[in-house]
Amino acid sequence: MPGVTALVLNRARTRMLAVRRADDGEWTPVTGIIDPGEEPARAAVREVAEEAMISCRVLRLLDVRTLPPITYPNGDRAQYLDLCFLCEADGGATPFPADGENTAARWFPIDAPPPMNERFTRQLSLALEDHAETRFRR
């Protein structure tokens, strides 16, 4: 299934947006599934608005990777192709966990992000590099 990760930074690039997932309590950038027929960059912007009540714009595609298969508690299985976008927040709004998928949403200093897994840590480091190229895992 196609999915997106939206790595949202403030305009000054001093803070990043993260949400605390309701299912496992982990801090992550905003993630979500692309709706049928939806443009991936629009999906990233939509997910950020739905999950954190933040308006943003996509700057570029950072990273493309296939995620490991996952089995949900109800037995459903899925595997995602993740398109990670670097996004910039439109303003200084206060994030809010708006859709029930997350228990918290907040800005973190870029030099003190929340604890995140290797995937999200790597994507954050890509966002902070001064390279325009998208990264592909080989």
Secondary-structure blueprint of this entry?
Layout: E1 2-9, E2 15-21, E3 27-28, E4 30-33, H1 40-52, E5 56-66, E6 70-71, E7 77-78, E8 81-89, E9 102-109, H2 118-128, E10 135-136
Parallel strand pairs: 1-8, 5-10
Antiparallel strand pairs: 1-4, 2-3, 2-9, 5-8, 6-7
In oligomeric terms, what are we looking at? single chain
Beta content comes to 35-45%
Instruction: Enumerate how many helices there are, as a single number.
Output: 2
**Could you spell the SSE succession in H and E letters?**
EEEEHEEEEEHE
Average pLDDT number: 94
Total domain units? 1
CATH architecture: Alpha-Beta Complex
Task: Report how far apart the termini are.
Answer: 19 Å
The named CATH superfamily: Nucleoside Triphosphate Pyrophosphohydrolase
- What summary fits the major beta sheet? 5 strands, mixed
Considering DSSP H and I runs of 4 or more, what fraction of the residues is helical?
A: 10-25%
Radius of gyration, CA atoms, in whole angstroms: 14 Å
Number of strands: 10
What is the molecular shape?
globular
**Structural class by sheet pairing and helices:** alpha+beta
> What fold name goes in the CATH topology slot?
Nucleoside Triphosphate Pyrophosphohydrolase
What is the CATH top level name?
Answer: Alpha Beta
Q: How is the largest sheet built, in terms of strand order? A: 4-1-8-5-10
Low-confidence stretches: none
Pfam families: NUDIX
Organism: Brachybacterium avium
Keywords: Hydrolase
Protein name: ADP-ribose pyrophosphatase
